[in-house]
Amino acid sequence: MLRRQAVFSLRRCYGTTASLRQAAPSSQATRLDDLRAGILGRTQQPTANTEGVDDDVRKYKVPPSSPSFYTARPVFYDQVAQLERAIATANNALRRAQLLPLPAFARASLPPIHPVWQTKEEMTQHFQTKMTLARYRKVTKLLNELNDYHRIANTAGVNDLANKIYSIVSLFESSKKDAFLARGKRKPVVLDVYGRSYTVGKRKTSSARVWMIPVQQQESSSAPLPMTTILVNNIPLNEFFPLPADRERITRPLKVAGILGKYNVFSIVRGGGTTGQSGALAHGIAKGVVAHEPDLETLFRRTKLTRRDPRMVERKKTGLAKARKRYTWVKR
Amino acid sequence: MSEDKLKLPKTDKSPAVLPEQFEPMSTSLNLPLFEPKAITRKNVGTAAGFDLTPTNPAKVFGLPKKMFLEFRILSTPCSVIRDVTVETKHKLEKAKDSSSKDSRIVLTGRAGCGKSFLLHQAVQYAKSEGWIVLYIPRAKTLINSTTTYTYDLRTQTYLQPQASYRIVEKLLTVNSDALSTLTLSAPFTVGADQDKSKVQVFKEGTKLSEVAQACVKDKSFQSACGTLEVLMRELEGQTKFPVLMAIDDFQSLFHDTAYRDPFFRPIKSHHLSLPRLILEYASGKRNFAKGAFLSALTASDTQYTIPLELQDTLELGNRHPVSPYVQRSETLLQYASGLDANAGGLQNLKVPEKFSVEEAQALFEVWKDDLALTNSRHDESFMAKYVESDGNPRDFVWKGVLASYAPS
Fold first, then answer.
1. Which residues contact B366 (CB under 8 A, 6 or more apart)?
2. Is residue A85 within a helix (H) or strand (E), and if so which, with residue range?
3. Is the CB of A237 less than 8 angstroms away from the CB of B384?
4. How far apart (Å, rounded) are the C-alpha atoms in residues B383 and A232?
């Protein structure tokens, strides 16, 4: 797109010729070949098509489409030039709109930007030159400046300018931008056809796969209070966890959220011991609660219910009896 | 003294004072009395207190251990009326006028679902209705070798004099009014086997209470077995009062006992007099003309588990697969199924595994009113305890209400 723009802008300077109009290949390389063939002259019998070309070539010195033709990397320099021109244009426009220079407080209030540009390999494809680090940095520096102008225009509400800038900037954005920005964040839990959430909770070496489904409310007014049923490995909770402490740990997320009769829980726990399994189940239930009630996400984060307890068994060290226990100290 | 710790500390103006709630025998529970007219569908989900008269079967016969501990913590013994209570009451009402052969019931269910409590409620109901009640709350005490035993050549069984004495004594205490109206239908001689000079003959027409009194007076337990046998025979024959035989820990009677024979082999339960007596009434070999046989299993005893014979005949279902090649004792199968197959043998009354929410609420309020809760957020803790215990009555009380770690 930039190349076409360059061509149209340069036409005014150099003038159009029939050969230039005729020869409109998609790549610079084939144009160069044609021109070279025309300049050097063809030994074979000229065809009807090429005859006119040869004549034109002898008559007029066909100028290259862009001044970067004589560089080793015409595409690269073209693109860079275009970016610089775009930056200049945007700068002028923003100055006219009195958005630049921006005072410190305004700049501080701008929303943060998280640009994810194409990698060097992707840009190599784009620029048709090997992108060394220096070239990559040059390009990304320009892109960052343009992106900054886009942010200012966007925040100010100058939408047409913002869209124009974005149309240039978006060409260089990586296709993996969303994935990159979402790295480290939890995948949002999706409820299935029946309204069930599926979450996994972990503690020490135990894991719990937890399905939560809302309790079916009976319509009649004399219906008793709905109650949560928790099944662990298809066994009722009180049979699987005999200790009151384990049971209370498991119902804590539901108590904190105040939804003790709202959901039924089915889970499969595996690994570890009783307390680890109860902690894993509590973690899974907390995540399931957040999936069903997104408003409680902040509350659960503050109460550390959705936090995976990072404590694991510490390894034994050499020279020590256990992780921390030392051998009996002998004076002599 | 433990009460000193409960006293409010003394000040300059007043001495240390024990708050009124902690006075012994004081109760803040105002519960309706557990009586036959209170056991109705409308009253399902309400708590009712047992009466505290000295002849109450609970006081005389005793209680299963867990129930005993619970009543010791509570300021007054009470229980919740459930829908099974009403069902059992209807069964007993039907059984009042028919032979006990038609009303041989075993209460089954998951561990802690309330079988012993239900049996106790049935005993209290029967006593209020004027039945003659024989309640054995811990049948395993008959087989765990805690009382004396002697071999009897005539019956070729091992008699249990001490245990028989205790039963006669308790039977007399609880049912003295009824026993004083009933009389012997045949003469009865006591002490014929022992010292000839101490032979006592009771003529036909003597009151049963007198016979029992004579046995109780004789502290040597010699006449106990014979007296008990005669009393049971008379109770079988009479139709004036329906008789309820209530046995808890019923499954323990199907195991080998802790007694040893001269060859140091464990004695089978049906070779001991008292377990044999109970098994005969259970199987229908002996019946009361009017009355019922009600028993409850104990699912949580690991020493005396529910045997395969009972599991098969009552169709209890096995948690683990059972091989058909495991031997079942023929005799025990007979006792479990009863001689008359047409009568269906022992009936299985399944106690619901869970409390309904109303029943749980009633029980929770009993503990709350008795100042047992440390957490002031009652609604939340009720729902949490119900969920944690999955509605299981025992877990709801012992591991829920009384064992909570939640701070107030």
1. B29, B31, B47, B74, B78, B80
2. helix A74-96
3. no
4. 19
